[in-house]
Amino acid sequence: DRLSAFDCIWHAQGGMRGVPGKGAALNAIANHWFSLFRQRGLADSHILETPHPLVWIVQKARPIMIEAIARQYITGSMWRAYQRGERVFCGIELPDGLTRDQKLPELLITPSTKGVLRDIPGVPAADDVNISRADIERNFSAFNFNSIEDVAHYETLLKQGFALISEELAKLGQVFVDTKFEFGYITDAAGNDQLIYMDEVGTPDSSRLWDAEALRDGRVLENSKEEFRQSLLAYVPDPDILLNKARMPEREALARDNALPVDMLMAVSRTYVRMAERITGKPLPLAEDPRGEIVDVLRGEFALID
Fold first, then answer.
1. 3-class secondary structure for 217-258?
2. Model pTM?
3. In the chain, what are the domain boundaries?
């Protein structure tokens, strides 16, 4: 239920430290897409069981050290770079004349590093550094790929997953704008490594979702965490603190020392619960006693707690 944005955790007045229903919504949405990926024959995920709305039992995976980002529209950080005059983004050449929030001619894969990776030629040792396909191919083992062929494999799985979610969201009047997937290897029963989807997919935390009808009218109506990011940018006196990585100490102090209005977090709650119920087609189950219920499940069904 914690709410992170701009690499900080935010809270609200009255001691409100999380967003009601957010964790359950993320679990429900991601599990829905993971299950659909499996049913359609794309690839498996790390999920073994989902015994509670707030609990997954997962298979340990060896992560690929890449944030696998796919973009169908030019917005967010790509637009800001483009607006500054940059025409090469993650090794991809962009044409002149693009406008903000415009649909791109094709789905673009714009990866970044997962965590701080050191001693990779040409890749700064910092979090979330944009990288190119050539960077990955030259250093595939440093990014935890078993082989250079798996670089193309992850791109295929990313494109297939994006297309499936985009198709399903279109039926619900939503546009799948961009997203971040993560991948890893698990060992199957025969002892072979399999490249799988992991972490989360297609959630309002990891993706931008726009209302299709509003977009046809020339408006962007967010149905994801981007809605909160935009509200935060409008709320703080100096938005540059949130956008400028060089001002991270100021940003951390801002998040730590300032309680936001409760309705800013409740707006996130309403969006996440609504989207979870629309995507899954089911009411979102909410825990009345989260800690007690989780302990009971882990102790009674899995003997993971004494």
1. CCCCCECCHHHHHHHHHHHCCCCHHHHCHHHHHHHHHHHHHC
2. 0.95
3. 3-64+144-300
